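SUBJECT: A protein chain and its fold
Encoding: whole-number codes for local backbone shapes
Chain under study, with its fold:
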Amino acid sequence: MKKNYLLLLPFTITVLKAQNSQLYYSGKFLTTKDKEQNFLKVQNKNSGIYELTDEKGFAIIAAKPYDTLVWNQGKNMYVVPSYQLRELKNILEDQTEKKLVENIYSKTYDSLTSKETSDHFSIEKTKATLSKRSDKDFYKIRIVKQRNDSVYTLKNINQRTFVLNGSFTTSFDVKSRNAIPHIQNKYVQGRSENGSLIWRGPETNEMFSFGPDVSILGFNGVPYEYDQNGRLLHWVNGLQHARNYNNNLFKTTVGYSNQLNVNAFIKDGYKEKVRLSLNLGQQKNQMYFIDQYDIASSFKAKLNTEFKGYLIDVAFNYEEDKATNTNRIGLFNRAYQNSLLTPVSFSNNQQILLSNGSQRSYSKYADNPLYLFTQDSKYHYQSDQRQFSLNAVKTWDDFKLNLSQSYENNNVWNVDQYKPTTYGFSNGLRNERTQNNSLYYSNILGIYTLGDYHFKNVFSLNFILNDRRSDVSHSLTAREYLYQRTSQDHIFNYNMEIRNYDFGTGLNIGNSFYISNTSLKNNYWLPKANVYLKFSDIFDWNNFSFKMLGSYTQLSSEPEITRSYASYATTLLNAENYYRYFPIQEVESFKGLSNINTREWKVGGKLNLGYNISLEGEYFNKKITDDLFPVYEENQLKLKNMADHTYSGYEFNFAYDRLRLGYEFYTVNKISFFKYRDIVDRISPGYQNLALSGFKDIYKTLAEGQALGAVMGSYFERNAHGQIIIDNSGFPEKAAGMKIIADPTPDFVMKFNHNLTYKNFSLDINWEWKKGGQLWNGTQAVLDYYGRSYESGEERNIKNYVFQGVHANGTINQIPVDFYDTNQNIQENRWSRYGYLGIAENYIQKADYIRINNISLSVNFPINNRKQFLKLSFYVNNILLWQANKGVDPNQSFYDADYGRGLDFFNLPSFKTFGSIVSFKF
């Protein structure tokens, strides 16, 4: 074969850029409830490709060491270690039964052709043989059956045994919030009047905290409905000093999880005949808010057996989830916002209601967060999911057939409620949202294998049918939305591999059809191609290898019909009117839309230096055409194909695997570098600068030639030289209109994974560094506006400050100003003069961070000669060491929106978790 290298060279050059038969990761991917589910989308975050699971949750996806796989819409992720990657042929070989071809012998034919005289009664000379269907090893013979004149089938008497094993895992975790904005705890509710700072109580409905210093005030001791200590006066001897109240809404909480797995199976000798698996689980997830939690319960049963040559898997899953509240209407964001804005002179905890039954808050234009959380029933959210699946596998020599069927039914009930006297809903508002989903999945897969180790060919044909139905109703509008989609995927794939000593090459080509009743046009041409070249033992150095690869893929997809786009309603409001947000409008239809088409190509290589060091890199370019985005037209929420964009970048990974530090002491270190851009290439007429998420006066936009999701907002007026224009009062001038003011895309992201192993102990540390990118800190803007921010408290006494800039006539500004002049109207001060959001450009901050994602310490205690073991783990997740912005975790999203990252408008803080896991295998 070595002599044929030159013949392969032209073929190699031709297909090098086409595709990559690179390494693959195979395994199970479960839902957020640890549930096996067919057609679950698993995406390689680094390369952008994705695959779909079968009914067992099994999927094969192209990956490289330390690639990050994400599923469940990003809620789950897994960093792929190098030792779990294999070539596709090896994965397929494991699923294909291997059989040997035996010679056919006839005693009659031998008697006519043989001249040798022999003892016909000798066992050594007998011509009788055993059928290949005979058992290989014998302890006792159960049956002897003659197949023909010279072939016999023998079956063994196996000892049947019943085996029961399983595991029990229990864990608990302690959660506390991460960083939140600093607020001032010095100045009380109020403002200046006639040159003096005065306290204005809640009955005045004052919203600002530009009053006097709390240290010079005292309580008068007279009964007062808004404060049990009385009203505030200037302190004199005999009065109780005023307090600065703590209105922190967060607390440290404890959650738990229990899971029992039991396996019962019958073995006939060494062969497993029947297996029954049961899984019971319960989990309580306690939020860091007061009395907010959810409880999830699950039951899973699975039966595996063999019936007439078919390997049969039958499974049933049931899951139930209940929660006190969800954040569908931004309830948690609203409560968090009101807790930060509550003046230091008012306590939300003293009392929730006034004597007239209305809520007790520091202003009628604000809410008491505790009042927002009061409810008349224990749970405002419930969901249950049922899934039944059947899988059958049959093998005939080189051909394998896999038949899969599953049916799933999901019911979701959600109550969104604001009680009477809530700001914006004086009479209260209640809406019951119900969603019923039914999902049917069918998969027929045929695989034919031809050839051997040195030259192998695998042909596969896959037919997938999905029928999805979803109905959504809202009690408030008495409106019901009905969605239905039947889609088919027809996938042909051919894989070829050639191996010869220190050289290998592989080719994978295929084509798919995508047919759907909701698509405007079906797609019958979705080709893909992968190719790789591998040179092993370079210069005769053991395990020194180099691999080049390339790939080209076309995909066609549609938006998931069970997904809600109701949160897009924020784009109808100005930020100041956030309190009116109450989404009850769903997408009108998913029909009549073009498919989202993707064309991706990538090239890369991998270098192994010995058994421990590896270096790999890859460049990718993904062109997405006719991408879908929500938009309001004619007072209806619709989806439109409105833009093309290109997602491109490169990634490098370095690994030093199993470095020995001492006796039974090893370490593994991995580093990845990732850089990307997502640029909008084309926008349909009429949709330029469309809002993707945010409010009307600050949002992430769709702008041609700009990064997808660039931030659009207000800005400073500047002259042709870029100098800020100063108005006649001495303050910077706000420009008319809006423009792009920030790009959330980071310069790069680096991830580091370290593992230390000593005997039965294992320590894992995962951390990352994100450099670059920007975000808009609207939380800071609103806190500034009302005088609640730390900066407004520290700087309000600054006087005779001169802003750098020029006047409209070009002269240098020399007008001194006071940040807070008590002789002027309160809305003339430094922080309130520009309105609720100030000037958005002034609140653009860096989104850099260095974060430790996880630290875990595990130890195994073998029991009974390692047949059973006890495992203890201690971990801490999401410790944020440093961040450049003045607010919450920059990874948090605006109102949980898909395109919300980069906008911070009272985004909920992330939380750090301390926990332990005890697992016992029996």
Summary: The mean pLDDT is 90. The first strand starts at residue 24 and ends at 28.
